[in-house]
Design goal:
eight-stranded mixed sheet, alpha/beta
């Protein structure tokens, strides 16, 4: 009888743990991500520890991805050197990492044209958990939600990001 009680307790415990909600906040204990590279033409993003690639991802970009972002609403993903500005755990796109666009040069160029440079450029998850199509954002870098959970756990604010054509 005692063996049956232990077995029943084990079954109930395993059953309850299977019902526990999955968290989107993963723990990462590997090498520090020292830089992020986005290769727009190849639609790839790489996480580096110094000169070693830790992870690579297929990405979606802004709906008009060719060239550097210049103005609000142009659908382009910026190009150049920026940094991860902050983590947003409450993003409308699952999770997101802020990119420090616009910088001083971006602002000066847009203002000289009498326009706004835009902002709110992020690396983020996809709507409904997946990337909808090749390029659909307003200038952000998009991953699937599962991929974004891993990236969010690995990349810290202050990390340099190089966005290449």
């Amino acid at each position: 009888m005692r063996g049956f009680g232990i077995l029943l307790l084990l079954v109930v415990t395993l059953g309850l743990s299977a019902c526990a909600p999955k968290t989107k906040f993963l723990k990462y204990r590997g090498p520090e991500v020292t830089q992020v590279q986005v290769h727009k033409t190849d639609r790839k993003m790489y996480l580096f520890h110094h000169d070693k690639v830790l992870k690579s991802y297929d990405i979606a970009l802004g709906f008009a991805p060719d060239g550097h972002k210049q103005f609000e609403g142009d659908g382009k993903t910026p190009e150049g050197q920026y940094f991860i500005s902050h983590k947003n755990p409450n993003s409308q796109f699952h999770l997101s990492l802020g990119i420090s666009y616009p910088n001083e040069a971006d602002i000066a160029f847009a203002e000289a044209q009498g326009k706004s440079p835009g902002g709110d450029i992020f690396i983020h998850g996809g709507p409904n958990g997946k990337i909808r199509s090749r390029d659909w954002t307003w200038g952000c870098v998009a991953l699937t939600d599962n991929e974004m959970e891993v990236v969010y756990s690995m990349v810290n604010p202050g990390t340099p990001i190089f966005i290449l054509p």
